[in-house]
Amino acid sequence: MNWEELCFHIQNGRDSASLGLYSAARTSYGKALHLINDFLSTCADVERREQWQSAIQTINVELSTVNSITELLEDLSRSSACRNGSAIESLIFNIEENKPWPSPTNVDKKTNSVLLARSTNKKQHVAEFEKEKQKASSSKSFDVPRSGANTSGNLRRRLVNSNESTPNRPPVKKNTSAAGHKSANRPQSSEDQPVEVEKKFDSSNCDKELVEILERDIVLRNPNIHWSDIAGLTEAKNLLHEAVVLPRIMPMFFKGLRSPWRGVCMFGPPGTGKTMLAKAVATECNTTFFNVSASTLTSKYRGDSEKLVRLLFEMARFYAPSTIFIDEIDSICSRRGSESEHEASRRVKSELLIQMDGVISSNPNSAAGVLVLAATNFPWDLDEALRRRLEKRVFIPLPDASCRLEMLKLNLRDLKLADDLDLTEIAEKLEGYSGADLTNVCRDAAMMSMRQRIAGLEMDEIARLHAEDLDLPITRQDFVEALARSSKSVSQQDLDKYEKWMKEFGSI
Predict the structure, then answer these.
(1) Integer Cα distance of 142 and 144 in angstroms
(2) 321 is an annotated ligand-binding site residue
(3) 333-377 pLDDT tens trace
(4) Rounded to whole angstroms, how far apart are CA atoms 78 and 73?
(5) Is 272 a known ligand-binding residue?
(6) Using an 8 Å Cβ cutoff, are 371 and 239 in contact?
(7) Could you tell me the CA-to-CA distances from 183 to 135, 178, 188, 189, 395 in Å, in that order?
(8) The model's pTM
(9) Which domains does the chain have, with CATH numbers?
(10) Basic and acidic residues bias: where (predicted)?
(11) How far is CA 488 from each of CA 307, 426, 431, 485, rounded to the nearest angstrom?
(12) 273 is in an annotated binding site
């Protein structure tokens, strides 16, 4: 079963329901239930089936709630008694049917005429009613009247004045937590602590659509990659620690000539851990992290790409201290002046160079700034001006023997190992393999026992197997077979090119 697809449908259903998109919510819940039922048809574990049955019950409860709301809205749209207010009130506030209604109060002619005019147009009336429902749900406390002569009159006045009162009403921040609902109906005491408002970039002077595009690329979720998850690369770790962490701990030291580094370029063969280092910076350094790629800064409209570059650095300065990680920077800022270069790409490169130069040279005495962290597999294709702005150019090489041994331990830490498996011997045989190649070898070796166990079995027989029958210790022979099936992805010729460029332009 595709777990990501299942989580997406469940989350999409809940988000759609909270936004009032009940049809989309029902569709998403239905797809999630279909995926779970397909999985249960092939699952033979009784305990897991019981757990998934409880999950199905939870989804069915949410789906039934959405269905009841949909039926209520359909009843409201079909109702012909919306003019007198009592029918609306009985549907919204769930008034007890046994209590008799009092005689209607006198309503002024202006209010009555407006209500009659609105009731003739069903779609417009339903839209007005939806606005009233949103107002009721967004308020902190709402006392629902059970009966009385003023009930229908108050409801009519709310329906009539909904459009007039909405623009003048200040926005109310919704509190979705359970504690927020409990404390909404009690007065605020002096002991309550003020809530810290999250800093928000002011997009009034900018194109809001472009700002929204960039805000989606701010890494809000924790990548959950720590320094301890990366084997070796001591020089790169120390450099990033010096450029990002130490300026926040010792701001008085990093001033003037000692100002922190503002441009770092990591280059090397594919699969050596450049992107993982960037994720570790986002996790460990507690800075605003912008993950930028060529697609983020590309637009089909003339001039928008340059605006995106400028807005990116303006937002980075606003949310400082921040880190801008540009993966595969050679695709954005390759060498200028080639015959195949387009005018639009040249303008983007020029704007990027201007903004990077501003980041490096502006306010050099301030330790809290913006770090441009770039990664590339083709450093020789970078523009000369960009190479100058990336002050530190660090070579990320293939792992040596000690790093390979540490990577083997990290990859196999949650798996069972046989007694005949010597990781030091395996690390020596993996010479010339990148970190990604080594991970693939470990994954292939970990699946060998499963492949041998299910060989020659039918699908029904495989489904009846227990996890203990498949989770066998990894042996030395498994790694021998995995090495025979997997070759290294980096040639010696490529390594010579990286080492030559490092000797000529490297800066550690």
Answers:
(1) 6
(2) no
(3) 777 767 667 777 788 888 888 888 765 444 544 445 788 889 999
(4) 9
(5) yes
(6) no
(7) 19, 9, 8, 11, 55
(8) 0.56
(9) 3-78 (1.20.58.80), 86-165 (no CATH), 208-395 (3.40.50.300), 401-489 (1.10.8.60)
(10) 125-135
(11) 42, 14, 9, 10
(12) yes
